[in-house]
Amino acid sequence: MPTISMFFGIIIRMYNNNEHNPPHFHATYQGYHAVSNMDGDLTESDMPRK
Question: Which InterPro entries does the entry link to (predicted)?
Answer without folding.
Answer: DUF4160
